[in-house]
Write a structure and sequence with these properties.
Layout: E1 3-8, H1 19-27, E2 31-34, H2 40-47, E3 53-54, H3 56-61, H4 65-80, E4 85-89, H5 98-105, E5 110-113, H6 120-127, E6 135-139, E7 153-157, H7 162-172, E8 181-186, E9 194-199, E10 213-217, H8 229-240, H9 246-250, H10 253-272, H11 276-299, H12 305-318, H13 321-324, H14 332-347, H15 364-376, H16 385-405, H17 408-428, H18 433-457, H19 467-480
Parallel strand pairs: 1-4, 1-5, 2-3, 2-4, 6-7
Antiparallel strand pairs: 7-10, 8-9, 8-10
Helix pairs in contact: 4-5, 8-11, 10-11, 15-17, 16-17, 18-19
Length: about 475
């Protein structure tokens, strides 16, 4: 049975190539393939009469690295079906070599690994770092930002052209400042070794990279990563800790409720004002509350922020089978129907009645809309919005009748019915009554503030201003909007 023998060429020049590997290549009667000829050992071996079949052309024809590796492996397997071959790769075959991994995963042809020297020893020596402190080795051609651990020594390999260097730089700039110092390592452990320290923002500008180039990012201290969620959790734990803040230490789930409600409404104001900076700030305040609630739960031994995140992650995956599973959906309505069914499945018999799951602290208008929305799901609903308009007119007539009778309790009840029907009417037009009323409140306050300013400009007091004058300023405020 034919096989593919994979040989590593080491990380540098011919002096790093083990004698046994050199002899094996020198005496080989088999076809020798190499992933790339961009390696100093290849030049030396060619001068000694050893020929290589290279896959460099595939890199030029294909821009996607995954496709490059798959194409190389396909051609190697095809060649090996005829007779055994040798396949050489830079460095060690088991270090950052995707083609070798793909070869090991297949079962058509036997694969034998014949060593080769890794460049990691030379890299650690060149950088004078000890990997026991924590070390992450990343393929510059294939990684995701979420995988990066900045608090360890971080090395990107296979940074062999300016495009890859640029991609690495742009990803790092998501987390690190432009002037953060990184080191470009070229030909580690060879006579051509070169270390260049430079600001991150210059990574793809000032140094020409090649097949022997790596990028080293020194560890970042935790405090320099304030945008990481773990840092916020750490800050909150410190505030609640023995040497923390007295206010944070005394908080309970119950004491925080009113502040949380305020933060939600402040976020709504920022959204209504389309103020992105303020939205960021208010979302941060709301997130702080979530972390603080979780820290209180952790301190009391009931739950932690991990439990909170796990709960919502599992819920989102379970309630979106059309995204994370095999289920197919054709519309938003179908998504919502599935959501409700899965929600009921999760909660089981938690509530004895259909309306039992509505929060008791929900504002009255929002609760009215929620009650009617839930009832509508089982068919208890108006069939035509015009019927709701007629119902509103009926309730207004009953208000007037109650007022004429002079009964305060009845007047209150009838006004309540008007608001309840209004909330239901708004549901037919996909309007949230709480949001709508909040916008109306903000609009009134803005216009009235303008009226006050105009009166002050006229040198008068608001108490001495006629209704006609105030109405004139009010119309001015409307015109400005």
């Amino acid at each position: 049975m034919s096989k593919i023998e994979v040989i590593g060429l080491g990380a540098g020049d011919i002096n790093q190539l083990p004698l046994g590997v050199y002899r094996k290549l020198k005496d080989s009667q088999q076809e020798i393939y190499t992933r790339t000829t961009d390696h100093p050992v290849i030049d030396t071996l060619r001068q000694e009469g050893i020929s290589f079949y290279s896959f460099d052309a595939i890199y030029e024809e294909t821009s996607n690295f995954a496709e490059v590796y798959e194409t190389i492996v396909a051609q190697l397997l095809e060649a090996a079906k005829e007779s055994s071959i040798v396949y050489t790769v830079p460095g060690h075959p088991m270090l950052a070599e995707k083609t070798v991994q793909l070869l090991l995963e297949q079962e058509e042809v036997e694969v034998e690994i014949s060593g080769g020297q890794s460049y990691l020893d030379a890299l650690f020596t060149s950088l004078k770092i000890d990997p026991i402190d924590g070390f992450q080795f990343v393929d510059g051609t294939s990684f995701e930002r979420r995988q990066l651990n900045y608090e360890q020594h971080l090395v990107f390999c296979q940074v062999y052209d300016s495009f890859i260097a640029s991609e690495v730089k742009l990803t790092l700039l998501e987390d690190l400042p432009p002037d953060y110092e990184v080191t470009i390592v070229e030909a580690a452990g060879t006579e051509h070794e070169k270390l260049t320290k430079l600001p991150l923002e210059d990574l793809d500008r000032t140094v020409e990279v090649n097949n022997l180039t790596s990028v080293y990012v020194p560890p970042v201290i935790h405090e320099q990563l304030p945008h990481r969620f773990s840092r916020l959790v750490e800050v909150m734990a410190t505030l609640r800790g023995p040497n923390g803040c007295p206010w944070d230490q005394k908080q309970t789930h119950q004491s925080l409720r009113e502040y949380t409600i305020e933060e939600v409404y402040e976020l709504m104001d920022a959204i209504d004002n389309e103020d992105d900076d303020n939205i960021i700030e208010e979302l941060g305040d709301l997130l702080m509350h979530i972390v603080l609630y979780s820290q209180i739960g952790d301190d009391e031994g009931y739950f932690s922020i991990d439990d909170v995140i796990r709960s919502i992650t599992n819920k989102m995956v379970h309630r979106h089978p059309h995204v994370f599973g095999e289920e197919q959906v054709d519309s938003v309505d179908q998504v919502l129907t599935n959501w409700d069914a899965l929600k009921q499945q999760e909660k089981g018999k938690k509530h004895d009645t259909l309306l039992g799951g509505i929060p008791k602290h929900l504002p009255s208008l929002a609760k009215a809309a929620k009650l009617q929305h839930k009832a509508s799901k089982v068919g208890f609903d108006w069939t035509d919005v015009e019927d709701v308009w007629e119902k509103l007119e009926e309730e207004l007539s009953e208000v007037k009748e109650a007022i004429s009778m002079g009964n305060a309790v009845d007047i209150e009840d009838e006004f309540g019915d008007v608001l309840f029907v209004t909330a239901n009417l708004m549901r037919f037009y996909d309007i949230n009554p709480e949001v709508a009323l909040n916008r109306a409140n903000a609009k009134f306050a803005s216009r009235f503030n303008y009226v006050e300013e105009r009166i002050k400009e006229s040198g008068k007091e608001i108490e001495d201003t006629t209704l006609e004058e105030m109405e004139e300023y009010w119309q001015e405020a409307k015109g400005r909007e």
